[in-house]
Amino acid sequence: MEQAIPVYILSGFLGSGKTTLLQRLLDHWKGQGLRPAVVMNELGEVNLDGLLVEQSVPMAELLGGCICCSIRGDLSTELATLIKKESPDVVVIEATGAANPLEIVDGVTETSLYLKVELKSLITVVDAGHLLELHRAQQGATYRLMQEQIRCASVLILNKLDRVTEEEKEEVLTVLRKWNAYAAVMPAVRCELDSDEVLNQAGGIRLEAEDLTDEAEGDDTSHEAETEGNHTAPGSTHALHDHVMAYTHYFKNTVNSEEFEQFVKDLPRDVYRAKGIVEFNDTSSRYLFQYAYREADYMKITPQGDVPNVAVFIGEHFSSGELRSKLLRLEKRLLARPNAVRRSL
Ligand SMILES: Nc1nc2c(ncn2[C@@H]2O[C@H](COP(=O)(O)OP(=O)(O)OP(=O)(O)O)[C@@H](O)[C@H]2O)c(=O)[nH]1
Known about the structure:
This is GTP-binding protein. With 345 residues, the protein is α/β, with parallel strands linked by helices. It is 33% helix and 24% strand.
């Protein structure tokens, strides 16, 4: 009988390390002579993570929205099309960091109604330091969303341990255990783990709805979650990330590298993830830049094909107009002029 195609969902908050893990898993499968395929979802209009994945890997892209709401219906169709066209041995779905994983589970199970696919596990990558900070503050829709991503995981990768102390690691491990006592927890730096171990953990995906409302810790985030999104029913899981927004900026000019680095350092706290391809006027190469939880990273890159110079900013209620003005100023497309003139640009 025809074997079901295993499907893995990669979940985890923005910038936690999902693409880092994805690259490791793809290398692992290719090393075994298998043909993996990827469904990638990005909030921004360009698939920057896709540039980090070898071109030989078949990929379906869902851009400009989050799988779990605006383009939810597309997931099942894209997954089916990818499988029919590419006949992969295994499929990984990398959700946006703002996605509620249960909605993705829903999309996969829909596909399994008419194609032989088997959802193997839901792997959630956690940024140890970021979770700790939110847990200590005990509030915010981001905190609540992270909690959900952790709760329904069958495997938890406790990543970025290079950024926390041993005591903080123990503290965050206790939080994970409290929220999800069933999943295997795998501590890591840059998701450096034995891929077989990651893939073979059998935790089972937890779909119990009652687990999604936790009053036990006395946090008051459920109220916030309900009021953030006014077009969703109170308590609806979609409301958890309706507050998340993305701004995509296309560069027309090159920028100075030091000025750009300073701009990234000065990003408002409400911007918790940024990435892009930039071309500096004082260096010879193009760079892929990454910014996650106040840490920036620049990597020389030579993208294949026609890739624009672009930056995507993801966060909560930040002023995209302000970011745009600053970037235009870096590009010298917005020169200091009287306010009235500047507004009309
Ligand atoms: N310091 C540190 N940085 C890490 C670690 N793992 C990943 N990173 C960096 O964190 C940034 C984000 O990593 P990604 O793998 O792109 O994260 P992601 O979850 O795919 O991000 P989104 O798709 O935007 O949600 C990159 O600059 C990585 O190099 C880690 O363990 N420690």
